[in-house]
Amino acid sequence: MSEIGIGQRRANRNKSVRVRLSEVEFRALTAFATDAALPTSEVLRRLAREAAGLGPTFEGDMSKKIQSTIVQLRKIGVNLNQIARVLNSGSTPGYEPLLGGIERLARLVAQHERDLAELRARGRARGLRLVRTDV
User: Does pTM surpass 0.85?
Assistant: First the structure.
């Protein structure tokens, strides 16, 4: 099972799906899960998440990169809160530095949003291709 890291919460998984498989399908699924060192339920959950466009499950280096991104986004949020606090206090900082900072933050947030949307879209497209493929 994957570890709970920065910015992650354990999902409340109270829904279940019952699936009938042939013997060959079941053996293939369990062999795949064994090779991946995951329980079959986690394999199915990850495939369902990716196919539904919820995004892939990250492990290893990619998980560390995502956690780093979450930390960066939190720092951006702190910066925005500091800007809002100064503006709400009635202080008027120099317009150009403030505008430049806000524009940089906006670009960073937009890039992170595009990156995550692309990951979700790629996973969903892959899931659709696999579902539509005749076996």
Answer: no
